[in-house]
């Protein structure tokens, strides 16, 4: 895992959101960082909001493994709606378990999540990294962008099929209530950052 710039993350994220025609007509490379963020907020207002809401955000690039992937949570949102409705325990694996055992059309109607899109991604996985979000203070790591792809991969994992875990960008933002959270244990963030800095998780700054 390595540190990367916000500009690197935002530009690649926007490329994934645009169609080829849009990219050819208005190259991402020609946009300022502010313009890239503005367009991302237009495409994905809920997913990209943490970039400015939790600023300053530290960005890391990593390749997920089974342990870290298994602990990912679906995107933040209102309880009982969309991804939070699909995953009762808020996890990507929890969402995949429901997709695996329930009728796709009925599940889509109940949750608002496009379950058929998850199934299509399982058959034909798109490229590109997941975008993950967390905050200082040992809070959970959520999938800010790429929830359909993550659940599709989790279906293969649950079925015992060979899995190639994807590349991801992890954004670690500020937390206005970090004080009370310092007492929590956060194996994912401390474990991953510990590998980056070559120290044990307990030695890392919060």
Task: Please give a structural write-up.
It contains 13 helices and 5 strands. It has 206 residues and is of the alpha+beta class. A 5-stranded mixed β-sheet has the order 1-2-5-3-4.
Topology:
Layout: E1 2-4, H1 6-17, H2 20-25, H3 33-43, H4 45-48, H5 50-53, E2 58-63, H6 66-70, H7 82-86, H8 92-101, H9 104-111, H10 115-123, E3 130-135, E4 142-145, H11 147-158, E5 167-173, H12 178-181, H13 187-197
Parallel strand pairs: 3-5
Antiparallel strand pairs: 1-2, 2-5, 3-4
Instruction: Characterize the biggest β-sheet.
Output: 5 strands, mixed
Unreliable spans are 20-24, 179-185, 199-206
**Radius of gyration (Å):** 17 Å
State the end-to-end CA separation. 18 Å
Within the largest sheet, what's the order of strands?
Answer: 1-2-5-3-4
The DSSP helix count reads 13
Keywords:
206 residues; alpha+beta; 5 strands; globular; disordered C terminus
Short description:
The chain has 13 helices and five strands. It is α+β, with helices and mostly antiparallel strands.
């Amino acid at each position: 895992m390595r540190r990367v710039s916000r500009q690197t993350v935002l530009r690649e994220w926007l490329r994934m959101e645009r169609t080829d025609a849009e990219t050819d007509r208005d190259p991402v490379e020609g946009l300022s960082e502010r313009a890239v963020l503005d367009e991302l907020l237009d495409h994905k207002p809920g997913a990209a909001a943490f970039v400015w809401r939790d600023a300053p955000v530290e960005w890391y690039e990593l390749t997920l493994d089974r342990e870290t992937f298994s602990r990912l949570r679906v995107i933040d949102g209102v309880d009982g709606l969309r991804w939070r409705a699909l995953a009762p325990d808020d996890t990507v694996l929890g969402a995949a378990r429901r997709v695996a055992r329930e009728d796709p059309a009925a599940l889509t109607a109940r949750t608002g999540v496009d379950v058929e899109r998850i199934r299509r991604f399982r058959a034909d996985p798109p490229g590109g990294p997941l975008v993950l979000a967390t905050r200082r203070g040992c809070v959970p790591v959520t999938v800010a962008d790429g929830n359909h792809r993550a659940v599709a991969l989790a279906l293969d994992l649950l079925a015992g099929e060979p899995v190639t875990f994807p590349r991801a960008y992890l954004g670690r933002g500020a937390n206005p209530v970090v004080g009370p959270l310092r007492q929590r244990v956060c194996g994912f963030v401390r474990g991953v950052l510990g590998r980056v800095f070559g120290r044990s998780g307990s030695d890392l700054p919060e």
